[in-house]
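seq:
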Amino acid sequence: MEVKLFPAKNVDYQKVDPEHFTGEASVGRVFGPDQGGEARIYRVCFQPRARTDWHIHTGLQLLYVEEGKGRVQKVGEEVLEIGPGDTVCVRPGEKHWHGASLEGPMTHLAINVGGRTEWMNKVTEEEYSQ
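struct:
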């Protein structure tokens, strides 16, 4: 097996799909199955108040915060504040959302191991702001 480099300069960032996100955010795929592995790694840059819709993954998801402050919530639980260096583990089948803080932007790596994403309803302002 050889060591392969996937330079950051080669990541193509796109605006996120407004059907699955609220607010402004961009996403770039850092690594995917076509590059030789099971994991998919995305770098997601959320502007203030931007967030995903509620969703589940059929595989494991790890979120690693690179910069800024954000929020994450599992259904039925309190909103958690997250910041640089924090890692969030989302188990398969856990309904959740994640995004930037109320005041500023946040960038995280989303590492999805196997499975797929099932999108659900929008996160309401009340849910987001609690």
